[in-house]
């Protein structure tokens, strides 16, 4: 699954979303009294006031034909398809990777830093797309994702795996974020939700049934390392044709002199160091480092404290908490008084649609990660499913939400409204997670869990796309990337907090209940049982030890699901705060678009 085109938010992996016109700090275009640009013809010039990246994509859209636009979307679909398979396979493999190092309990922990970095890095990605260009940002995403996959294939320790997760998650986010911006660049607002569903959602319909068997085949054969190696080759192969298409039409647009004369400062006559200084300031590198490091240091103790002899009283844990909090304070102070280019435009953050969309994204990712982190393990240990069958159940929502998103997109196309379909979906998601509080127990039928997954998947059909539509409804084209990145940042931070809550509950409840339920002769093996999924599965179904493990799983899952359900109260309030703008008469983009 994922909020927006960028993060495919699925129950085993981490996880979307937009832009600016001049400097984020000094942009005066975000003014509610200023009308959004109305598109009149395909052959118009690009916006001379927009940043180079926005101008470049508008020039491409003016230069290409309808046939090229269709080919573009086919290539976008193929890239999403491959990354969706990769995402499903990684979700199935993650418990086995951490278990191979006897650290199964770190399954969600290794994703926390990468999740935080993902959300924050999208702000820089938005700047890259706006200041440098869309094709360059896409190429960067393919490169970093491939590098992360290569590192995973070469993993020899959980530390290297965690580092590889960071590279993969950041690259995957940059790639998905950029593809999502491509969709925003090439659709009218009334068609955007529909095209997001078709181009970025429908690949999951097939990937859901392929990712699990791929993971199981490699686990039973050459090993999980080779699975990552295969994707490190496959991704560039399918990614390069799309880049080639963009480069071709960029060159064609330049030859046709489509690009406008820009009033923005040029970097052509500046020295190398002057250019470096310019881009460092434009990307707010200092702010990104402060915020990413601060959030990571603040959240990590919630996962690492069980590994420390003194727990919360450990100097390391206290040091992380204090250092993280201080760095976040320094970040706020730096952005308010010293940053030459503001990290986040204040006036954008005061818009209720933008704020509400960001909060809803955070709630969605918190809830998803709060209940999904140990879902694969639960299905295998409690329900006795294979890796493949567990991945099928986990991915049922990935089948339901693309279909529902297309229907949601058709609804928005016809009515122009998005608020109340989102509110209904929020209530349905809350209902689905609430039911799992009762049904995710050892003595319940698997069919009830599948029913809950269907409810959640249908709800995701609109929740995955409408927050961005709501936020974009009051913005011009040049603001799309920055606002999407803000929503993505909220979503990633919500996901990181959800992972932290999950890890904390797991570390506090699961071993305690194991000690309570295990037969006395097995208590000596408690640490090994807690640390390894494979050891948990080694006890036969129906044995006292396996039953004890299943009961401990049920108790821990219940606490996670209560948190995942309760958080949706905030999501309801955030959705009610939106304006319900009619998007049928709002046109942001130029050129040959859908």
From TrEMBL:
InterPro entries linked: MFS (IPR011701), MFS_dom (IPR020846), MFS_trans_sf (IPR036259)
First-listed, main subcellular location of the protein, grouped into a coarse class: membrane
GO cellular component, one term: plasma membrane
SUPFAM superfamilies per the UniProt record, alphabetical: MFS general substrate transporter
UniProt subcellular location: Membrane
Transmembrane segments: 67-85, 105-125, 137-154, 160-184, 193-210, 230-251, 279-302, 314-334, 354-372, 392-413, 420-439, 445-470, 482-509, 559-578
Signal peptide: none
Keywords on record: Glycoprotein, Membrane, Transmembrane, Transmembrane helix
Domain Major facilitator superfamily (MFS) profile: from-to ranges: 72-583
Recorded topology in the membrane: Multi-pass membrane protein
Superkingdom, natural source: Eukaryota
GO MF, one annotated term: transmembrane transporter activity
The protein's name: Major facilitator superfamily (MFS) profile domain-containing protein
Organism of origin: Fusarium irregulare
Taxonomy of the source species: Eukaryota, Fungi, Dikarya, Ascomycota, Pezizomycotina
């Amino acid at each position: 699954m994922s909020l927006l085109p960028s993060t495919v938010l699925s129950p085993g992996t981490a996880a979307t979303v937009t832009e600016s016109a001049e400097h984020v700090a000094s942009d005066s275009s975000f003014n509610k009294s200023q009308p959004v640009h109305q598109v009149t013809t395909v052959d118009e010039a690009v916006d001379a006031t927009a940043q180079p990246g926005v101008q470049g994509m508008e020039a491409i859209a003016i230069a290409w034909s309808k046939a090229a636009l269709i080919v573009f979307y086919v290539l976008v679909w193929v890239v999403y398809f491959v990354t969706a398979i990769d995402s499903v396979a990684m979700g199935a493999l993650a418990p086995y990777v951490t278990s191979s190092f006897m650290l199964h309990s770190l399954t969600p922990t290794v994703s926390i830093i990468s999740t935080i970095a993902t959300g924050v890095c999208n702000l820089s990605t938005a700047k890259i797309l706006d200041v440098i260009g869309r094709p360059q940002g896409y190429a960067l995403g393919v490169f970093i994702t491939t590098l992360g996959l290569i590192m995973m294939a070469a993993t020899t320790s959980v530390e290297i795996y965690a580092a590889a997760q960071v590279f993969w998650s950041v690259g995957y986010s940059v790639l998905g974020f950029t593809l999502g911006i491509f969709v925003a660049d090439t659709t009218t607002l009334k068609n955007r939700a529909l095209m997001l569903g078709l181009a970025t959602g429908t690949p999951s319909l097939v990937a859901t049934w392929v990712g699990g068997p791929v993971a199981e085949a490699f686990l039973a054969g050459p090993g999980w390392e080779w699975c990552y190696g295969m994707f490190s080759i496959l991704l560039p192969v399918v990614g390069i044709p799309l880049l080639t298409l963009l480069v071709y039409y960029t060159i064609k647009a330049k030859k046709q002199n489509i690009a406008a004369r820009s009033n923005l400062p040029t970097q052509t006559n500046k020295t190398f160091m002057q250019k470096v200084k310019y881009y460092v300031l434009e990307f707010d590198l200092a702010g990104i480092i402060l915020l990413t490091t601060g959030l990571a240091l603040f959240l990590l103790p919630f996962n690492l404290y069980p590994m420390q002899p003194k727990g919360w009283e450990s100097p390391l844990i206290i040091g992380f908490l204090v250092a993280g909090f201080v760095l976040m304070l320094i970040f706020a102070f730096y952005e308010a008084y010293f940053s030459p280019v503001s990290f986040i435009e204040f006036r954008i953050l005061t818009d209720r649609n933008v704020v509400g969309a960001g909060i809803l994204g955070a709630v969605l990712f918190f809830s998803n990660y709060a209940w999904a982190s140990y879902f694969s393990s639960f299905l295998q240990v409690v329900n006795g499913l294979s890796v493949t069958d567990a991945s099928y159940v986990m991915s049922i929502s990935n089948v339901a939400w693309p279909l529902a998103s297309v229907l949601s997109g058709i609804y928005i196309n016809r009515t122009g409204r998005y608020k109340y379909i989102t509110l209904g979906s929020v209530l349905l998601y809350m209902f689905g997670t609430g039911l799992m509080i009762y049904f995710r127990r050892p003595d319940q039928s698997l069919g009830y869990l599948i029913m809950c997954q269907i409810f959640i998947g249908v709800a995701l059909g609109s929740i995955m796309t409408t927050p961005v539509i709501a936020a974009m409804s009051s913005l011009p084209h040049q603001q799309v990337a920055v606002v999407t990145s803000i929503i993505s940042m909220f979503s990633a931070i919500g996901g990181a907090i959800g992972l932290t809550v999950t890890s904390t509950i797991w570390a506090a409840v699961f071993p305690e209940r194991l000690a309570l339920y295990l037969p006395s002769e097995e208590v000596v093996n408690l640490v090994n049982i807690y640390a390894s999924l494979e050891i948990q599965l080694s006890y036969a179904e129906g044995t006292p030890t396996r039953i004890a493990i299943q009961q401990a799983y049920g108790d821990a899952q219940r606490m996670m699901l209560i948190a995942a359900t309760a958080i949706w109260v905030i999501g309801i309030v955030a959705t009610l705060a939106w304006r319900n703008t009619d998007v049928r008469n709002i046109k942001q983009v130029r050129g040959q678009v859908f």
